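Subject: for your reference before the review

Hello V.,

The reviewers asked for a structural picture of the protein, and I figured it would be easier to keep everything in one thread rather than splitting it across files. Below is the amino acid sequence we used in the manuscript, unchanged from the supplementary table.
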Amino acid sequence: MERYTQSRIAKELGISVITVNKVLNGNKGNQVAPYTARQVLDFCKKVDYQVDRHAERERISSLELHNFKDNETRKAHMLHLRQNGYTNVEIAKLTGYTYITVLKIIGKQPKELTLASYQRAAEIRCINAWHRNEYMNAIAENDEKIKKYNAEVLKCQAEIKRLEAVRKELPANATILPMNILETATKGA
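And here is what came back from the structure prediction:
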């Protein structure tokens, strides 16, 4: 059996998804005609519509953060956030209100809270600086390794050029022996 969604219910009843949503969530703001509300509820009962609990929790938590109907509840929530160490800027981001609105509702934040937020920011800057220094040190070490490698390559290239110059000076009919044979001959002599 296929699961019913609000959009599928709306399509089968010939009404908008918003209307179905308002009826199922019990929104009191914009009234839905009683006949339409009864029609939606009866259809949901008939098809055994189940609310997605995860989506419901998300909706409730978003209501807790954003849609307070009265200023006292909103203020209490913001003060609770402040007691948990959030700054006004963080409260504004969490609740979706502007910073100015947060200031109007709960006022300026205490100096110790401001100091704590500055200390957190300073700690973050120190950690970032440490990571940047570590990164720069790793780059410097790699540069040193590359310089040593390049110096070795230059030595090898110079030795190759010297040996090619020596080979050119040899007579055309001279036999060139491998190095290990020359070493053995000089040790035996």
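For the response letter, the relevant points are probably these. The chain has nine helices and no strands. The chain has three domains: 1-51, 68-108, 110-189.

Happy to draft the paragraph if you're swamped.

O.
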